[in-house]
Design goal:
The protein is an alpha/beta fold and 320 residues long. The protein contains 7 helices and 10 strands. 24% of the residues lie in helices and 22% in strands. The chain has an 8-stranded mixed β-sheet with strand order 1-4-6-5-7-8-9-10, sandwiched between helices. A two-stranded antiparallel sheet has the order 2-3.
Length: 320
């Protein structure tokens, strides 16, 4: 029997959290109502009129005892997810937060606007629409864990996964517990909050995923002095309005893309974007002979290997 040694303890000089960004909105003319707020409690009169703090972002930071001098490194999750995407993996192994702390990075993990501990605003009084909540079926197929539509069943024995998948299938149901409501109109609010974060902590590198990929590219284009490097994990789009782009960027693409029409089209856009800008490099894992990575490749069984490749690129790219 083989045993796996426990990882070395993490040594930090500081850790903490804060909220950043956001705006205030005044509501008036709304009717009051009554609600019982606690089990066994008395009804409370609720007056919805007044000032609301909205569109702020929650940030948690971990500063290693021995920094590598290349930080900070900010993690920005994808759609329907929170900063938990970068933390402990669904199978219980260390995620990228721990990995990069061990490499000496000052790490900042964010719950973007309207996710997790950042909260959301009343709708339709302030926000124009309600949230989108993804089904488990959709996550299984669209994240290229399952082999296309209708590959998910409540009974794990009936599910159809890609035969070479590197996602820990036994822990898919655990992964689904991370998924949260998301909105579709808050892109600019997210960009504004991340710009406020960069202005607070100084020139920064960002690791982003899926939905946040094109948003981070827009941010890089808007405030290039604040963004030193960008690593985009399977960005879900390329902003059409970007004509000039100067931020060193690594785009990482996983496996089983050929069988997904949406990702084929996105792949063409990504290749064209990289072809137009010398500062953009694509890390195509399948082209390197690494197959089976899902859309959430930071959770796959070879995530440490991918993190090592990103680490090497960052160290090579960032100034001494």
């Amino acid at each position: 029997m083989t045993t796996t040694a426990a990882p070395e303890p993490l040594h930090l000089r500081a850790m903490g959290s804060f909220h950043v960004g956001g705006r205030r909105v005044l509501l008036s003319g709304k009717p009051c109502y009554s609600r019982t707020m606690s089990e066994g409690g008395e009804p409370v009169n609720i007056n919805p009129n007044g000032t609301y703090a909205i569109e702020q972002m929650y940030v948690q930071y971990f500063l290693p005892q021995h920094p590598n001098g290349k930080g900070p490194l900010v993690f920005w999750h994808g759609g329907g997810m929170t900063g938990a995407a970068w933390e402990t993996k669904p199978d219980g192994a260390d995620g990228w937060v721990n990995y990069f702390i061990r490499q000496g990075w000052d790490v900042y993990v964010c719950d973007a606007v309207e996710r997790g501990r950042s909260g959301f605003a009343p709708f339709p009084d302030i926000w124009p629409e309600g949230p989108i909540i993804q089904t488990v079926d959709d996550v299984y197929a669209r994240f290229r864990i399952g082999r296309g539509e209708h590959s998910y069943y409540p009974d794990p024995a009936l599910r159809t996964a890609h035969p070479d998948t590197r996602f820990p299938l036994a822990h898919f149901d655990d992964f689904c517990l991370q998924m949260v409501p998301r909105w579709t109109h808050t892109n600019q609010a997210m960009i504004d909050a991340f710009q406020a974060l960069l202005e607070r902590i100084g020139p920064t590198s960002i690791v982003c995923h899926s939905q946040s990929g094109p948003l981070a590219m827009q941010l890089a284009n808007a405030v290039p002095k604040h963004l030193r490097a960008l690593v985009a994990i399977e960005p879900a789009g390329i902003p059409a309005e970007i004509e000039t782009y100067a931020t060193p960027t690594l785009i990482v693409m996983g496996g089983n893309l050929a069988g997904d029409e949406r990702w084929q089209r996105l792949g063409e856009k990504i290749s064209a974007f990289a072809g137009r800008h010398e500062c953009v490099q694509v890390l195509d894992l399948e082209a390197l002979g690494i197959s089976g990575n899902s859309h959430v490749l930071m959770m796959d069984d070879n995530s440490d290997d991918i993190a090592l490749r990103i680490q090497k690129w960052l160290l090579h790219t960032l100034p001494q």
